Amino acid sequence: MENLDVLVLRTLRDWRIAGRRALLATVVRTWGSSPRPVGSIMALAQDGSVVGSVSGGCIEDDLIYRFTQAYAGRGEEKAIPSGPPSFVKYGVTADEAHRFGLPCGGTLELLLEYDPDPQGLAELVTSLEQGKLVRRTVRLSDGAATIEPADTPSDLAVDGERMANTFGPEYRMLLIGAGQLTEYLATMALFSGFAVTVCDPREEYSGAFHVPGAKLVHEMPDDVVLSFRPDRRSCVVALTHDPKLDDLALLEALQTEAFYVGAIGSRRNNDARRERMVEHFDQTEASLARLRGPIGIYIGSKTPPEIAVSVMAEILAVKNGVPLPRDMDVAQAKNSLDVQPNDPGTLVCGVPER
């Protein structure tokens, strides 16, 4: 599954190039709880086709009804929407919040852009497809939009004159090892909007790996990390349990801006990995501070799909800047429960104990 923003903008571009009337809705403010964060976007075509989301569904339904009626010249809004962008609020009253399925006390405000310029959209989509980080600024007086390169991601900003929203390339995940756990984790990552690359030079594993949408490569993992060039929207996860494959790849990943670098394994294996890196690769506790392991959050997972859920949850928490309680850390939780790691080589439900 591709990045949702790119999908929305590409679809809107195609509608506009084909001459279809359409609008772009952006969540610009929220108060209290809200279903979707600020910066979320949705595109709506004149025939009611919609892509993206600004809520749990009810607000989308209202927008579809209001503007398809307007395009058809029926209902309260018979004029075809056009002109400068406009703001609309949902959930101002308790009754309205309930009607639109907003959480208790939730209110959100949307900016609606009518018939965005197709050439500007094409330029924006091209930049995103090339992996660029782009800031799009909309002038509220007339809806004119400009795009410019952005050095760092930033939150949506809106004032009385303009709205600026930063769009970045899709998040990427590099998985070392093509085993069963990788298949589950790759599938979850794809549905979470990550572009997934799986690296495994071992024919006995890579030959059986098949996850539609994931790219499979066969070079040595450390070389793949170098060519992958992880950035702040990338994560690298080692899943082979083989130091010859995992260690060098992890060391290369730690030299990058990847927001998450981690490896599967038990507490004992994790400690042994750190000792190897200090003894043989001149690493220090400081240089290994970003290395996560055992990875995942503690949910008592034993099977490959459960472990994949645990790992994906931790990756998403780190991506979204959510601090995790210490008692959800795998090592901390197991130490607190006084659960001893299994002996090396022992399997639990077909996967090594973490």
Automatic annotation (TrEMBL):
Annotated Pfam families: XdhC_C, XdhC_CoxI
Organism of this sequence: Ramlibacter henchirensis
UniProt-listed PANTHER family: ALDEHYDE OXIDOREDUCTASE MOLYBDENUM COFACTOR ASSEMBLY PROTEIN, MOLYBDENUM COFACTOR INSERTION CHAPERONE PAOD
Name of the protein in question: XdhC family protein
InterPro entries: MoCofactor_Util/Proc, XdhC_CoxI, XdhC_Rossmann_dom
Annotated ranges, domain XdhC- CoxI: 15-73
Domain XdhC Rossmann, residue spans: 173-315
